[in-house]
Amino acid sequence: MITSLRCFVLGTFLSFALAFTTYIDDTNTTAWTFNGDTNISTWQYVTPQNCPTGKGCIGLVDGSQTYNKTFHESRANGENLNQLLYGSLLVRGKSVSIYGVSSYISGSVTFTGPQSKQETWDSHGTGPMAGIYNVEYATFDGLNENEDTVISFQVTGWVVFDYAIVNASDPVQPSPTPTPPPPRSRKPIAPIVGGVVGGCVGLAFIASLVIWWILRRRAASKRAVTASGTIESPAEEKSASPPPYSSPLSSSEMEQGGSSIVPASPTVSQNRQERISQLEAELNTLRQSELGMSPQERLTALEQEVREIRRVQNAIPEIY
Predict the structure, then answer these.
(1) Does pTM surpass 0.85?
(2) Mean pLDDT, to the nearest integer, of 196-224?
(3) In whole angstroms, what is the distance from residue 261 CA to residue 37 CA?
């Protein structure tokens, strides 16, 4: 029973200890920064993607033995190993330890923590050619867990950064630097307002044309209806036309030789009376010539008389 209790207590303690320990890989760009690249010295970032075999790509580090199979290596072109590279690590916790790889190649790194506390690591070029992994470069204790802590470093020669371990009373990650939102693009207001106003004016103009065309059609329809309602029928037109001029001589008066001819009106001029008398005389002469004619001659005379009457009717208006 006591043994079981001891195991339970130990397991609980280890669980809490592990829960408050955080590994920060060199690929975490929120925590790590690697700067100072020049054409002489640079940082080489090795991953399984750019070095599939895990070793032999850059230097002598075996990537398969590093944490997460990645690492950052300071490299100098040629023999100049004194070009400085630098960077920083952002953490939040009560302590932090930084780990890397050591080899026979010379290299040193100086870390600066809170209150200008410094830690220095130097390989002295005494390590094996194959390298030593999980080497502790520096440790900073007594950090303020309520705020972020920046550990800066400067490198000379060949140094390989692998990962860092942060211990905290609470499993709190360092707060990332807030990224300012992208500036909102200001849309040009004048073209938008001009487009809206122009569109409204265009629509109003089109609507006015449509209304004008509809009113014009209606007015034309009303005029057509009014005109069709006042059109006189042929009978009305005939009755409205002035009566044909009638001869002042009746048919009985013409058969009696025109003895009872009466002037059409007291206002008839002397020329009209003379013309009528002349026409009556010619008609009487024609009638007298009909006596003793044969039926055919009589028919011809009648036709001539009809033509004469028509000529008389047509000639009478000329005397007004």
Answers:
(1) no
(2) 90
(3) 144
